[in-house]
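Risk register update: the risk that structure generation would not scale has been downgraded. Supporting records follow, first protein first.
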Amino acid sequence: MAAIETVPLRTRVLDVPVDVCPSVLEAALALHGRGGGQIVTLNAEMTMAALADPALAAVIEAASLVIPDGSGVVWALGRQGRRVRRSPGIELARQLLEHASRQGWRVALVGASPQVMAALTARLAQDFPALQLVMQVDGYRPAEAWPEVERELLALQPDLVLVALGVPRQELWIQALPATRSGLWMGVGGSFDVWAGLKKRAPAWMGALHIEWLYRLLKEPYRWRRMLALPRFAWAVLQDKP
């Protein structure tokens, strides 16, 4: 029988690190209590990207917490005898926003389009009236504007920074900031679009069947080339000794 992990453990899938823990939320809050760090949400697509991109691989290696976001990663861990539940990054980020609202954390949002950021800010004000948003910056800024954005953001010393710049840009951008940064820093991909009400997540039944990738492909057919990473990942895991 597969072992149920009761303490956080860093293991690897195709030589890419991933952390196994009973609760990713509790692990994230504990990380905040230790001063903070970068959280990475690992799925099959990112795993394959890391194998091809040493810079992304280095970021994941250095991350303070790497959670099993995708069902493929959970499946690969199961082949190692580690029984874990999938932990979607969008759900962890939402839980952290809820916690931030209750605890008075200072929160910053970075990325997405100006239209998405405006809609998101309005929606979060309705959902979490007590949330302290100290900075909201869209991702459509010229290169010369980013150093000032970074200086201002670091000076604010936020407790939580959610970054929606897409993979791997968001991970690389977070990692490149000074190591003295405090708080939790997490790439959230398209979560802002969903929270703003401009896109929808796959239905729960598709998530239960581990075919959310099909929903995304049907909604965004241009993603088909990226989806080729999924069969490559499965084949690599089957070839890898558990």
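Supporting record for the second protein:
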Amino acid sequence: MNRLPNLLTGLRVALALFTFFALAGAAVLSERLTPATQFALERWAFWAFVVAALTDFVDGWLARRLNAATVWGSILDPIADKVLVCGVILGLLSLGPNAAVAVPAALILFREFTVSALREVAAGKGISLPVTLLAKWKTTLQLVALGAELLVACWAAFSLPNDPAVLGPATMGAHIMLWLAALVTLVTGAQYWEQARRALSPPAGAA
């Protein structure tokens, strides 16, 4: 049972990769696939993403509940989160150009890679950048927003009513959530940057 949290984290990575390849396959092979197969891939991608996102909440809770927190788990968990977020963003972008998605998605990717590089540099100097409370909520907001965007992008695959009165507000709501997630993501990136700047700056008066 103590290995269950790490297994769930590993499952999240696998599901993230499946989500990306299913969406990319549905887009790239669209001319060779039947509509039914293409829609099936999109539905599988959506549900794989939902399950993967749920494991993000469950694995941490189980680790605390079972007193099974490990160094490996603390390393793998944020990696799994970033793989999931980046995977679904790239999968969404593969479905077609959409500026309302591409711009906030690019900002999120820019922040994630920048902070990862910043952490690596800081770790090389023996400095740890603690996760902020806002950063924890940031991941939740990203997953909810990306899930909404994925549902809207795969709307036809679920045979949902193609009524502008329904699809229009749903699309607008998804875009607003994604832009909000991008804004919070950038704020947390600035927080990490300030942490790193203070930690890496020489003490006042140092030669």
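DSSP finds six helices and no strands in the chain. On this basis the risk owner (M.S.) recommends closing the item.
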